[in-house]
Amino acid sequence: MPTYAVGDLQGCHEEFVALLDKLSFDPRRDCLWLAGDLVNRGPGSLACLREVRALGDAAQVVLGNHDLHLLAVARGGADVKRKDTLHDILAAPDREALLDWLQSCPLLLRDGDTLMTHAGIPPQWGMAEAEALATELTGCLRSESAGTFLQQMYGNKPRRYRPGLHGIERLRAIVNTLTRMRFIDAQGHLDFSAKEGLDSAPEGFAPWFQYSRNDDPWLLFGHWAALCGTTPGSKVRAEALDTGCVWGGCLTALNLDSGERISVPSLQRT
């Protein structure tokens, strides 16, 4: 009964099917953990949602920033961006069932000391705190106030989470950390300007995984395609899963039992 952790699909449905075939994946026996960003940028966002949802309990998903953007467009009044590939979902006859399912997905998966979020977990958050904060945000998305949150979700402030935050500032700090984090400073402030490789780090900032922790979780994350599945200089046990399929790289699954990585090449033209 292997469990596979899979990086960002971003609408790469053909590659996802090819990866499942390569894994000889059987939903009656095997399990998938998906690192979020199921949709957007690639041509098969609607098909990705349908494929993952059809796997039932065999597929566990954490929400990524593109998934939340879809929800914000559909239910929070946000604008569709020029590069978005969400129109098929928004026009689909099963749109509401897919959106309901997506909105019910958590922002963190945990099995013992193994944790998956879309963007990572900062060193200032212990495992229990990270799980509690993710659960708080999931509760908001499953509540009647979800629409209000999705309308107010966007923004770069506050730049770090603090326990004393309340209301939308608290929720925004949590969601930005879990779904948008790349570079941080020693106090946990997020940088939102640099999105490329490690050499793009602003002065005083470093990748979140290059800071030491007081505990030793195994952290699985996607979001950062420029890392090409590596975590150079990491001071924690961190596995980068986004290998840039939508940008012409590959789609990767990590066997959590053996540590083996299995990939299929991208079919996208960049």
From TrEMBL:
Record bears the keyword Hydrolase: yes
* A Pfam family hit: Metallophos
Q: Among its keywords, does the record have Coiled coil?
A: no
Domain named Calcineurin-like phosphoesterase is located at 1-122
Q: What is its EC number?
A: 3.6.1.41
Q: Which molecular function terms from Gene Ontology are attached?
A: bis(5'-nucleosyl)-tetraphosphatase (symmetrical) activity
Which InterPro entries does this UniProt record tie to the protein? Answer: ApaH (IPR004617), Calcineurin-like_PHP (IPR004843), Metallo-depent_PP-like (IPR029052)
Keywords (alphabetical) are:
Hydrolase
Catalysed reactions, semicolon-separated: P(1),P(4)-bis(5'-adenosyl) tetraphosphate + H2O = 2 ADP + 2 H(+)
Transmembrane ranges, per UniProt, are none
Q: Which domain of life is it from?
A: Bacteria
Summarize the protein's role. Hydrolyzes diadenosine 5',5'''-P1,P4-tetraphosphate to yield ADP.
Which family does the entry's similarity section mention? Belongs to the Ap4A hydrolase family.
What's the protein name? bis(5'-nucleosyl)-tetraphosphatase (symmetrical)
> What is the species of this protein?
Halomonas binhaiensis
Upper lineage is: Bacteria, Pseudomonadati, Pseudomonadota, Gammaproteobacteria, Oceanospirillales
